[in-house]
Design a protein that fits this description.
This protein is an alpha/beta fold. The protein contains ten helices and twelve strands. Strands 2-1-3-4-5-11 form a six-stranded parallel β-sheet, sandwiched between helices. A six-stranded mixed β-sheet has the order 7-6-8-9-10-12, sandwiched between helices.
Length: about 325
């Protein structure tokens, strides 16, 4: 079946008959999917995880969740993926902290006949092509953030970049395309910092940028962990509305900052839908269905205060109070 139509009005209810893996019986163990993420902290990975676990429950899968605890813990992620291969899972959903470092273990999985699916990114390793991948284009996120920056600062201005975890594929790709699209404008990058994906660290880094550049016109956050930190720093410096804040992912704290007038433009992803779709493509792969396309690009939604109250959040947030 073609995945080109799934976001063009065709509901999954209409096609689940072709995708469904029947629930396990008492005699049959559930097929097992592995999930490997560098970090499961934050609104985006929590929402994606909800989509994965809820859809897996519907389709009769068991999910083994592995969290490396941070983008710096590459060796831990390698060990976790290797352990999933040894367990003999049917598929591994992978968000590689460092795609080049995952080549060996990805080849190990491929040799064992295990399906490899990019989880929120379109790669599983730098030299091993995924069987499928589900993501929003990270380059497109960067381009949409650039469009927002140019709209908010049509005459140009200064910007500080909270660039995300050093070396992480998604953060690097977003920033690369953002910089490409502001090249030739009067938007001047005056500060750039990478850091671990941590709310307290993001707040500290943004505060440092504002202390060094007290008239800074804009702060860029790689995602809402960084963006909310930036918005809080702007609020503490009494700069809401003066220092614009742009970032991706519309979590609950991001909404609060936008309503407070301290966040100005968010490129919202749909992580619940991303997680659900990851599980659905595994069901297809197990049935021998040829995916078309293999790289599934989930649409982005631009959010400002003008449309904040009308945005459909069903595919963005897990149910209120849900925890894994």
């Amino acid at each position: 079946m073609s995945y080109r139509r799934i976001f063009g009005g065709l509901t999954w209810a209409a096609v689940l008959g072709a995708l469904l893996v029947g629930p396990a019986t008492a005699q049959d163990a559930k097929p097992v999917i592995g999930l490997s993420k560098p970090n499961l902290k934050g609104p985006y990975p929590t929402a994606e995880l909800y989509g994965i676990l809820d859809e897996a429950n519907k389709l009769g899968f068991e999910v083994v969740v592995q969290d490396a605890g941070g983008y710096a813990n590459i060796d831990k992620q390698l060990d976790q993926v290797s352990n999933l291969v040894i367990k003999g899972v049917k598929a591994v959903l992978i968000d590689p902290g460092d795609p080049a470092a995952l080549n060996g273990v990805a080849m190990q999985a491929r040799g064992a006949g295990i399906f490899l699916v990019g989880a929120g990114v379109n790669v599983v390793a730098s030299d091993v092509e995924p069987d499928a991948a589900v993501s929003s284009s990270h380059c497109n996120i960067g381009r949409e953030l650039a469009a927002g920056a140019k709209k908010l600062m049509p005459a140009g201005g200064t910007i500080g970049l909270l660039a995300g975890p050093a070396g992480s594929f998604w953060a690097v790709e977003r920033l690369r395309c953002f910089k490409e699209d502001i090249a030739g404008t009067n938007i001047d990058v005056v500060a750039e910092m990478t850091s671990e994906q941590d709310a307290a660290i993001s707040l500290t880094r943004a505060s440092e940028m504002l202390q060094r550049n007290p008239q800074l016109d804009m702060l860029y956050g790689a995602d809402d962990v960084f963006g909310v930190g930036a918005a809080r720093a702007v609020k503490a410096a009494d700069r809401c509305g003066k220092t614009k804040v742009i970032f991706s992912v519309l979590g609950e704290e991001a909404e609060e900052m936008m309503r407070a007038g301290c966040a100005d433009y968010v490129v919202a992803q749909q992580p619940v839908l991303i997680g659900r779709t990851e599980v659905r493509v595994v069901a297809d792969l197990m049935k021998g269905i040829k995916l078309d396309p293999k790289i599934i690009d989930v649409p982005l939604i631009g959010v400002t205060m003008e449309n904040l109250e009308t945005v459909d959040r069903a595919n963005m947030h897990p149910p209120k109070g849900w925890r894994p």
